[in-house]
Amino acid sequence: MKKVLMVASESSHFRNFHIPYIESLLNRGVDVYTAANGIFEYKNVVHTTLNFKKKITSPANIGVIFKLASLMRHEKFDAVYTNSTLAGIAGRIAAKLSGVRKMKCRHICHGYLFDDDGSKRAKLYLAFEKLVRKRTELLAVMNSDDLAIARKYNLGKEIVFLNGMGLDADRFPDLSDGEIYAEREKLGAKKEDVLFLCVGEFSPRKNQTAIIEACGMLKRTDYKMIFAGKGEMLEECKSKAHEMGLDEHVIFAGHCDNVNLLYRTCDCLVSASRFEGLPFNVMEALYCHENIIVSNVKGNKDLTDNGGELYGYGDIKRLSELMESAVPCTGNNSLDEKYLLENAFNENLRLLKYTE
């Protein structure tokens, strides 16, 4: 019986992206192990809790690497699938240290955290990626910029392109006008108000502070800016909004179990991200026919063919102009069906070699 290990920085990653793939493996009799920060409980899956530190150069991550190497050496997995930057580097270094040569290393890049611009950041991250490329049997990327980087620097023995991990449309059903009206009332929105929405962890990469600054430049008063999510910069953003006198317009909704209700209620998704892979929040908004205003960075720009406004990263003036002219959602935008789970799933199984 085959044995597979999936590695991620956070256990939420498995819940958000990998459940259908885990179920497929289990149904074929594959032993599935997972390893990440936090608890992950799933029937017949063996989970190992790791203590990753977010800073890639943190000495504490060395212990995580040795823990992973020991796990690999003991279980002798047939394949290990690493996800995202930190877990991808640590997992593949651990694979090298484990000495399990027959174990296949396959990395799913959910967005490189750098551009190919020669910056110090790019040089640092590229150095790590080059360090593990010989141990990367398969590399999967999700946007055109990352595909170009991967090919230019030969970051995997085999490089494949995914249309994301697949958006599960069943999680985003249509809602009645009554449900939407009730949510607008709950948010304190008037009938004519435009509701902006930002979904994601509060972090420097997601850059919510830029959106708050853009709100401070708006002349219009017929709007609400709703932030859904938690994270290290949440309190800083709350303080900033208060100091700018935006309490009437900016709402911090925290973690939302029913994010579909927000997508269906709001008119326009706003993103100020610095880096993306293939952002689920943008895909979800488009699937729910929202307007979108997003930074012109990789991942975001790959999704704007079917509608949406792009602005230069960090151009807060342009962001505020687009928000100033935004109108209630017309329902014209849509997500290309190739990104839906029902269409991407079987192809991803093949490309990621889950079926071997």
Descriptive key words:
19% strand; 13 strands; alpha/beta; globular; 6-stranded parallel β-sheet; 7-stranded parallel β-sheet; 356 residues; single chain
Give structural notes.
By secondary structure, this protein is α/β, with parallel strands linked by helices. Helices cover 37% and strands 19% of the residues. It has helices at residues 12-27, 60-75, 85-98, 120-132, 144-152, 177-186, 208-216, 234-243, 259-265, 280-287, 316-324, 341-351, and strands at 3-10, 31-37, 45-50, 79-83, 104-108, 138-141, 158-161, 194-199, 223-228, 250-254, 268-271, 291-295, 309-311. It has a seven-stranded parallel sheet, with helices on both faces. A six-stranded parallel sheet has the order 10-9-8-11-12-13, with helices on both faces. Strand 5 (104-108), helix 4 and strand 6 form a beta-alpha-beta unit. Helix 2 (60-75) packs across helix 3, helix 3 (85-98) packs parallel to helix 4 (120-132) and helix 7 (208-216) crosses helix 11 (316-324). The model has no long low-confidence stretch (mean pLDDT 96).
